[in-house]
Amino acid sequence: MAQKKGGKSAASDDPEELARTPLQAVLLADTFNLKFRPITLERPKVLLPLVNTPMIDYTLAWLESVGVEEVFLFCCAHAEQVKEYIGNSHWGQSHAGFSITTIESNFSMSAGDALRFIEGKNVIRGDFILITGDTISNMSLTEALQAHKDRRKKDPDTVMTMFVKRSKPMPLTHQTRLGNDEIMMAIDPETKQLLYYEDRFDCSKRAVTLDKSLLADNASLYLRTDLEDCCIDICSPEVLTIFLDNFDYQHLRRHFVKGLLHDDIMGKKIYTHEIDSSYTARVDNYRSYDTISKDIIQRWSFPLVPDVLYAGNRAQMRLQREGIYKAPDVTLSPSVRIGAFTAIGSGTIIGENSSVSNSVIGELCTIGRNVSIDGCYIWDSVTIEDGCRLSHSIVCDGVHLHTGATLEPGVILSFKVEVGQNITVPAYSKVSLLPQPSKQDSDEELEYADTNSGIIDSPSIASISPANIEHDHVSSFDTEQSVLLEGGLSGVGYIWTSCETGNEEEWRYSVAPIPVEKLKEFYAKMFDEDESSSDGEQTGITHSGELISESKSTDFDDSDGEYKGDVSKFEKEVEETFERALGGVAEENVQLEINSLRMSFNVTHAECAGAVFQSVIKSAIIASNSSKSNLLKATIDAIERSKGLLSYFITNVDEEIEVILKFEEMCMEITREFAPIFSSVLHQLYDKEVITEDAILKWESEKADADESDKVFVKQSEAFLKVFSHLNFSTGVSVLQRLYGAMTSLKLL
Amino acid sequence: MDPPMDFQVVVLAGGTSDKLSPLVSKELPKALLPVANKPLLSYPLELLEASNLKNIIVVVEGDEAATQVESWLSVAYMDRLNVEVVKTPGDVGTVGAIRAVAPFLISTDILIVSGDLVSDISPGAIAATHRRHGAAVTALFCPAPVSGGADSSTSGGKDKAKKPSRCNIVGLDPTRQFLLHVVSGAKVEKDIHIQKRIVRAVGQMEIRSDFMDAHVYAFKRTVLLDVLEKENLYSIKQDVLPYLVRTQLRSEISAKKENSADESSNGATKELPSEDININSAVPSNQNLRWLSQHREIAPSSYQDIHISDCDKNKSRLAKKTHKCCIYLSGKTQYCARLNSVQAFGDINRDMLGEASRITGYTFSAQNNVVHPTVVQGAKTTAGGQCIIAEGTILGDKCSVKRSVIGRHCRIGSNVKIVNSIVMNHITIEDNCTIQGSVISSNVQIQERASLKDCQVSAGYVITAGSEYKSEPLTKR
């Protein structure tokens, strides 16, 4: 193609590279995720049609256009289908622009495994392009490839150049457009070196932490959230070796890129190349499928557009006005209304008074009368009977919709599903002839695992489905997999429950446009996040909004924050342990467990005592049913019950004071219901000999200099304290303490 | 000349800084320390006058220092500027200083300038930027000086090994107009935490560690007063500015501001425009508009419509909860330095003789020096390039002065070499002395054959004949 010489000249201009290696590419024809389930159970993702052409054709056409000479096609799931497709297409023929070699492995569970496998084949000789088979691009590689080679000459530690693209500026749209997560990258403005990478924006963390060494080495850097990862990389052969050395690297980005960035010892460097005007996108989920299809119809990906790129053996579609693509042999009844940006494949027949808009219809489809199709992707040989309404759905090959069926937005109908008469398929349902794999193998942990490979599924395909298909007509499925099309005369298929993403996230990845409410929710969430993020420890603002001077307390701020985090974690652990203890674990074991927790979290004895006490009090809340009298009683009971445990952990005055302070803190923050009965509980603690008078007096004197607001509980306990100091006096214990207490109370007045 | 802007200027002149010992004393507060024979404070004041900012409050630490500064001001600027001196006790920090003058602040915007700023950056431009954006705060940042070496500030980027010293870490938006993140003080050396939602709001944040806070801030008065109500603030640079920058997307001050704005509009004729109006009335460049749309209105317009129609209350609440923090970056050719150490004192004086001589206002002669006509030079005495010798000074025979500043009414004997040094007023230097790289305060007597290298001599000190000193501060016991 036009740019073909680009790659070649780039390589041959290089005088040092006398033994010129041909430009190689590794094409991963498997995405190692489940996002296109259930469709991918039956057909590999790379062969799914994107505006009536399999995705892999786009990728291969691009590779050809940039001058790649050798392509290694890695297949895993449905390898046979991929191989067969390549064998029959013109890519496999000798007149193609490159030689294509398929590498098949049934045991690879991730991109990392795939690359290790390829390394084992020993076929990569120089820099290569790493791309997945679902990437659409029309960019030129010349410049980036040259830059990569130049960098490698200067610094052999350069291992990879990642292509990135500026995304839409609005945060709301650039996340929702392709349904991807936001990516945060830090890039050196001059060298374009990638310094920090964070995908899957972790919402719980509201701040990015950049290591100090990053800024020590770079006077300036760009922190960007407005970039999309194109998922196309130029890799040095070392990349394969690195994967081999780090056998736990699975994901290209999450493990490999992050691993290299965190690794100071090897010093491998990754660079980015920002493309500006050309088009690149990856079909990662249904939403991006929708977006990219529209982009292709609107010709952003030129020359990879339907009327240019077509390798099928039927008549090619032609572009007409208003972005309508139509094959010449389409049969349309005169009353059919075709809206803008629609593609209709060869041999398709559409009946009277039907309307089609913003949709793609494949080949050899039969569409009846009064059908309305909006925003749908209808693949080949689909039969839609009269009066059906389809909006924003994906309908795979061979599906049959009986009269009057309705597809609500976001529906996915996998191969050969039938929907009965006048049935409405609810929004976001995924229907397949194959049952949903049982829960175990849809575990989230297996996200990288390739369950598509059929190892796990094939028995179920073989054994269950034929039986079920017969049963379908009477709608008798096993109970676990919910079934639809009840009442339908001839419904066939299972409704999948969404296991992977969870129902509430369904809208994000669906082909359907995002409902207004969801957008609002999303928008509100973004602000809520803002609101609630007082992010105390880093910014020096506490929840009450008061400001902590940074200039004075800088040195302690950070360490303190971390430390506090640990303590609260510790408290939680203790609480859990304690709850288990209530279930009847021997006291010694609980002591042992808490002690070991204390050591592993490295907290002080006093803090440990506080945590134990907190757990006791919390158990009292649960025991009481939130009435005040109950609460006091429950507290007394709880203290009585855990007396042994408390006295084990509360051994000296310091720890006792910590307990009182903890209790006070709880009364003010977490468990306000205790506030009115603070003094009674204190009294109880004293009676039960959990805490001694020394501690109470010390606590009182400690509080003497505190703010008025802090003294609420001291005042509440005043009566008790008075009695107490009197008692103290008569017994003659710690006269000094008492004196001190008296003095401070004088000061108070 | 432009009409005067509705800006009040607070100049923080400091007192007798420890960092500048032994050069400063009760008799000579920092503000009056001579730089190229002019009191330090005159530099910011001249600069402000040039921008027609004439409502100035000078805050001085300590009674005696205040008296000194006041008497100097009354002579020097009586008829030119509307200057008031306010004194504060020592060690209250910059925030304390502003608190002290808070009752006097009446205009819409307040410009706070450090009294030790030697620069040719127009404060008017900063004020204008501030107004244009309707910002809550605008801060001036300049490229950080390159650290290390005596001639550091002139060496630029010649030596690659010398990295600019890291004073601050700033986060800027792509147009470099807005301040999105700031780190100062001891935190600079730590890992930095950047709030994601601020990055998200702009898409791209440039983080730089080679800019320095030049201690010039324009504040909206209401914002400033609100912030001052908070406790635990000490320094504007380390507390107030980071606080405002951090909270720019969830402002706690704006709501209050609205009220106080109403109050002020009742009384005063000049109404403080609300933030939204300000955005519209500004005439930002295209890029700026784009940025604003991103930064201010997080949701794209179409979605926003939905939102407004539905959650009207919510929206208005959200809209109020932002304020803008702007940055004014000085150009590379502009000079900007703060005199906050003995090292800086030497550097700035040298810069005044060399690259930044335009700031001094002197006319350099053909020999590239400034010698007052009343100076008496003995036979074979040479005043080389980059020298300033003030009135009434008498130089003996065979003297040589290079790259130095000599103050008023000094008596310098024969065969004296003064290189790379600053000699203040009323100093006696006897015959055959050598002075290199040193700072000699006023009224010092240097007896014959003394040799000083890289020393700082405090006022009134007597250096005995024949003594030699190297790299020492010399103070009166």
TrEMBL record, chain A:
InterPro entries: ARM-type_fold (IPR016024), eIF-2B_epsilon_N (IPR035543), eIF2B_epsilon (IPR051956), LbH_EIF2B3/5 (IPR056764), NTP_transferase_dom (IPR005835), Nucleotide-diphossugar_trans (IPR029044), W2_domain (IPR003307), W2_eIF2B_epsilon (IPR044123)
Residues covered by the W2 domain: 560-737
Region (Disordered): 529-563
PROSITE patterns named among the record's database cross-references: W2
Compartments, as annotated in UniProt: Cytoplasm, Cytosol
Keyword terms: Cytoplasm, Initiation factor, Protein biosynthesis
Protein biosynthesis found in the keyword field: yes
A cellular-component GO term for this protein: cytosol
Chief subcellular location: cytoplasm
Pfam families assigned to the protein according to its UniProt record, in alphabetical order: LbH_EIF2B, NTP_transferase, W2
GO molecular function: guanyl-nucleotide exchange factor activity; translation initiation factor activity; translation initiation factor binding
Record keyword Ion transport present: no
Subunit record text: Component of the translation initiation factor 2B (eIF2B) complex which is a heterodecamer of two sets of five different subunits: alpha, beta, gamma, delta and epsilon. Subunits alpha, beta and delta comprise a regulatory subcomplex and subunits epsilon and gamma comprise a catalytic subcomplex. Within the complex, the hexameric regulatory complex resides at the center, with the two heterodimeric catalytic subcomplexes bound on opposite sides.
Family as reported in the entry's similarity comment: Belongs to the eIF-2B gamma/epsilon subunits family.
Protein name: Translation initiation factor eIF2B subunit epsilon
Lineage, opening ranks: Eukaryota, Viridiplantae, Streptophyta, Embryophyta, Tracheophyta
UniProtKB/TrEMBL annotation, chain B:
GO molecular function terms attached to this record: guanyl-nucleotide exchange factor activity; translation initiation factor activity
Subcellular location: Cytoplasm, Cytosol
InterPro entries linked to this entry: eIF2B_gamma, LbH_EIF2B3/5, NTP_transferase_dom, Nucleotide-diphossugar_trans
Keywords: Cytoplasm, Initiation factor, Protein biosynthesis
Signal peptide: none
One protein family per Pfam: LbH_EIF2B
Gene3D superfamilies named among the record's database cross-references: Hexapeptide repeat proteins, Spore Coat Polysaccharide Biosynthesis Protein SpsA, Chain A
Main localisation: cytoplasm
Alphabetical list of CDD domains matching this protein: LbH_eIF2B_gamma_C
The UniProt record lists the keyword Lipoprotein: no
Family under the similarity heading: Belongs to the eIF-2B gamma/epsilon subunits family.
Subunit note: Component of the translation initiation factor 2B (eIF2B) complex which is a heterodecamer of two sets of five different subunits: alpha, beta, gamma, delta and epsilon. Subunits alpha, beta and delta comprise a regulatory subcomplex and subunits epsilon and gamma comprise a catalytic subcomplex. Within the complex, the hexameric regulatory complex resides at the center, with the two heterodimeric catalytic subcomplexes bound on opposite sides.
Function: Acts as a component of the translation initiation factor 2B (eIF2B) complex, which catalyzes the exchange of GDP for GTP on the eukaryotic initiation factor 2 (eIF2) complex gamma subunit. Its guanine nucleotide exchange factor activity is repressed when bound to eIF2 complex phosphorylated on the alpha subunit, thereby limiting the amount of methionyl-initiator methionine tRNA available to the ribosome and consequently global translation is repressed.
The protein's name in its UniProt record: Translation initiation factor eIF2B subunit gamma
Organism annotation: Rhynchospora pubera
